[in-house]
């Protein structure tokens, strides 16, 4: 299954639409504008809830929790100290995310090492556009939720880097 995510670059609320190859809306994602826990809701196009995502308040590294309406729940947290690529384990599913997260080019592998989904970003666009290739179509809701959580983690990392750059004294 091939999907793409469109998000507005400037918005009071973070809103995304996840569309199929015919540009039909499959999922809608909305984050609360002023939320301490970075609360996000994922719904199918018909309005059915899929997942609720929120950040852990105090943590050494980014940690997010996802609670799905199908009863599954999982946690994502960044592993520190990987020098060559980003890696995040999703122990609940036995999955591993790996790739270059800041370049928005990554994949999910199952417990056997098989790729079940891949993502990449279109760099020249009025909207942020991400392409998702999902090989495990029976896990689409879970995979979409993982990608949304990962995009939140990437945004937090970029914001932290920007704050660090602004706080350095000029020479």
Number of strands: 12
End-to-end gap: 51 Å
* Averaged pLDDT: 81
**If helices are DSSP runs of H or I spanning 4 or more residues, what is the number of helices?**
1
Percent helix: 10-25%
Shape: globular
Give helix and strand order, one letter per element, not per position: EEEEEEEEEEEEH
Low-confidence stretches: none
Give the DSSP E fraction (strand runs of 2 or more residues): 35-45%
Kindly provide the radius of gyration, computed on alpha-carbon positions and rounded to a whole number of angstroms. Answer: 16 Å
Q: Structural class of the secondary elements?
A: alpha+beta
What is the chains' assembly state?
Answer: single chain
| Biggest β-sheet strands, sense, barrel | 12 strands, antiparallel
Q: What spatial order of strands do you see in the largest sheet?
A: 7-6-5-4-3-2-1-12-11-10-9-8
Q: How would you briefly describe this protein structure?
A:
The chain contains one helix and twelve strands. With 171 residues, the protein is an alpha+beta fold.
Secondary structure: elements and pairs:
Elements: E1 2-7, E2 14-19, E3 25-31, E4 40-44, E5 49-55, E6 63-68, E7 73-77, E8 86-90, E9 95-100, E10 105-109, E11 115-122, E12 128-134, H1 140-167
Antiparallel strand pairs: 1-2, 1-12, 2-3, 3-4, 4-5, 5-6, 6-7, 8-9, 9-10, 10-11, 11-12
Care to describe what's here?
This protein is α+β, with helices and mostly antiparallel strands and about 170 residues long. Helices cover about 15% and strands about 45% of the residues. It contains one helix and twelve strands. It has one helix spanning about 140-165, and strands at about 1-5, 15-20, 25-30, 40-45, 50-55, 65-70, 75, 85-90, 95-100, 105-110, 115-120, 130-135. A twelve-stranded antiparallel β-sheet has the order 7-6-5-4-3-2-1-12-11-10-9-8, with helices on one face. A hairpin with a 4-residue loop joins strand 8 and strand 9. The longest helix is centred in the C-terminal third of the chain and has 28 residues, at about 140-165. It starts with a strand and ends with a helix. The mean pLDDT is about 80.
């Amino acid at each position: 299954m091939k999907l793409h995510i469109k998000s507005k670059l400037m918005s009071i609320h973070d809103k995304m639409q996840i569309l199929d190859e015919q540009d039909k809306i499959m999922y809608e994602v909305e984050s609360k504008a002023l939320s301490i826990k970075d609360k996000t809701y994922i719904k199918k196009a018909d309005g059915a809830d899929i997942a609720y995502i929120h950040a852990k308040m105090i943590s050494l590294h980014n940690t997010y929790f996802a609670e799905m309406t199908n009863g599954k729940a999982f946690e994502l947290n960044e592993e520190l100290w990987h020098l060559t690529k980003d890696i995040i384990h999703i122990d609940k599913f036995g999955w591993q995310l790996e790739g270059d997260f800041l370049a928005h080019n990554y994949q999910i592998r199952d417990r056997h090492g098989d790729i079940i989904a891949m993502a990449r970003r279109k760099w020249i666009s009025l909207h942020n556009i991400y392409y998702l290739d999902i090989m495990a179509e029976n896990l689409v809701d879970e995979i979409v939720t993982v990608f949304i959580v990962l995009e939140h983690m990437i945004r937090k990392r970029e914001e932290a880097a920007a704050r660090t750059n602004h706080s350095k004294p000029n020479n």
